[in-house]
Regulator of G protein signaling 2 (Seriola lalandi dorsalis), 199 residues
Amino acid sequence: MNRLSRTSLDLQDTNRIHNAWKSRIQEYFIQSPLPWRKINRQKTNEASLLGESLEMLLSQKCGQIAFRDFLKSEFCEENLDFWLACQEFQAFDSPEELTRRAARIYEEFIRAESPRQINVDFYTREIISQSLQQPSPSCFVVAQKKIYSLMANGSFPRFIQSDQYKVLFDAASKQKGLRKHWKTRHQADTSPSLKMSPQ
């Protein structure tokens, strides 16, 4: 009789522990549903978001690569290269580094008859030329905005209709599917209910 009551107590203790863990896990997931919904929504829409805006596309390395490939087919990849060079340029603080990089960007993209000259007006070109005496991180901002606008209003809408975008979208969708498959499998392997089942 003593052994039987001891077994029922052990079973009750095991159930109590299991229920305590179960309630903690449920509490964690139920008490904070918004962050999880946001993450799931983000992963679900990740592939489609690349085509939502030029800004979103350029925020992803795979988007930059696909868009540059498209621009190359239109003989205007220098626009993206200039925009990216300006983004990198703005991160520097050192006057020596700013001067060196500003000169390189000017020679490659701004100077009249430069090998990869971008399409900016004479006035913008002159302002940049004068700012090279003491370059600041913002000396290319006006030209960068003009090129961004040119890409957003001209190249980007055509890119969304291109084969390069379809390949990018398919790759991002497949990657999302692989992540979802891995996540589902990983959760099944590490599920607390599997590890702490009552005996």
Remarks:
- The chain has ten helices and no strands.
- Residues 53-173 form a domain with the Regulator of G-protein Signalling 4; domain 2 fold (CATH 1.10.167.10).
